[in-house]
Write a structure and sequence with these properties.
With 158 residues, the chain is mainly beta. It has one helix at residues 2-18, and strands at 47-58, 65-71, 82-85, 95-99, 102-106, 115-127, 133-141, 148-155. The protein has one helix and eight strands, in the order αββββββββ. The strands form two sheets. A five-stranded antiparallel beta sheet has the order 4-5-2-7-8, with no helix packed on it.
Amino acid sequence: MNKILVYTAAFALATAALISASYATTKIDNSRVPNVDNNVEFPSSRWRIVKHTVRVRIPLDKNPLDQILIDVPSTVAVSNDIDVLNEKSQKININVSAHGRRIIIDFPEKVISNTKLLIQLNKVKQPVQGSASVYNISAKVVGSDEEIPVGVAQFPTF
């Protein structure tokens, strides 16, 4: 047990001795103007482009699906590059519009019922670190303006 403590203390001291005391220093030379020699951004603000895919089950109903509404979290930026596929992986004709942080997927054919849909949000700009991206999804059926809550999709960052 004592050996572990001694090794841990020695490792901590060696690490502290090797770490630079500052991230930014000024050059001292004959020019009387100070300038920055080095800088480091901490924490890093790296982003990556990802694809978020959501599976939505549409039950058999008297009225077919009219729209799917997706509330986009503030932690991501979603492009208009969105595909909707049926359970046979065939593309479905859609119209996409955005109003603030809400994406509206409109189905012009109005025959979507009793199926599973894959909604592919392509080219989503998501941070590498931070909290998970949580989308709230709702739907509207033909002949009604009422929003029906469908569920929540959560995508972790890594």
